[in-house]
Specification:
48% of the residues lie in helices and 6% in strands. A four-stranded mixed β-sheet has the order 3-1-2-4. The two termini are 31 Å apart.
């Protein structure tokens, strides 16, 4: 099953060291010394193998306390086959989350009802197949949408917050800071100042 790829440490480490594009989106690498997670294709000098761990999804990496790399931009990774290859119910739930089902403060209970199961069972399935709760996955997806808008548009932050699915600007700022350890305005300023090829976000091995 594709969702178990991240458990094969040797295969993931080979793909990471080779920057193999076939594995982009299939797992994410967490660097223990920096607490940053990356795509396997990240162009930064690879960390030592003993200092890395692997996750099935971006949400799982963030749940473990890692923040996204600003160089390889995990939010731009292809849709994870680990998610697509999971149980049909989880795959359907992920599609609904991608479409914004849990945006604007919608409860997980509503998603469980839509899928015809208990909230407890839905959470158990998510932890098994996605490595994080439905709420964590939804928050990660909202922050990823927001990050893409921060990088690629001149939209004001208030507009980005609502376009990404946040119920308020306060929640947007809090979620963004929790992931990137800095406000979205700082990310935009730094990107404009240094350009897309800057090295200010370099992740040391």
């Amino acid at each position: 099953m594709a969702s178990d790829l991240y458990r094969d440490r040797r295969a993931c480490d080979r793909a990471r060291l080779a920057r193999d594009p076939r594995f982009d989106g299939r797992f994410f690498t967490g660097v223990l010394t920096t607490r940053i997670y990356c795509r396997p294709t990240c162009p930064v000098k690879p960390a030592r193998s003993r200092n890395v761990v692997f996750f099935p999804t971006a949400a799982a990496a963030e749940r473990a306390g890692f923040r996204p790399c600003l160089r390889c931009r995990p939010e731009a990774a292809p849709g994870s086959p680990a998610w697509r290859g999971a149980a049909a119910t989880v795959s359907r739930a992920l599609r609904l989350i991608d479409r914004g089902f849990l945006d604007d403060g919608a409860p997980v209970e509503a998603l469980a009802d839509r899928l015809g199961m208990t909230t407890r069972h839905l959470r158990r399935l998510f932890l098994r197949h996605a490595g994080a709760s439905p709420t964590a996955v939804a928050t990660t997806r909202r922050v990823q949408r927001a990050k893409a808008l921060v990088d690629g548009t001149a939209m004001p932050m208030s507009a980005i917050a609502f376009a990404a699915g946040f119920a308020s600007i306060r929640r947007f700022n809090a979620a963004f800071r929790a992931v990137y350890r800095r406000p979205p305005s700082a990310i935009r300023r730094a990107r404009r100042r240094h350009g897309a090829s800057a090295s200010w976000w370099r992740v040391p091995p």
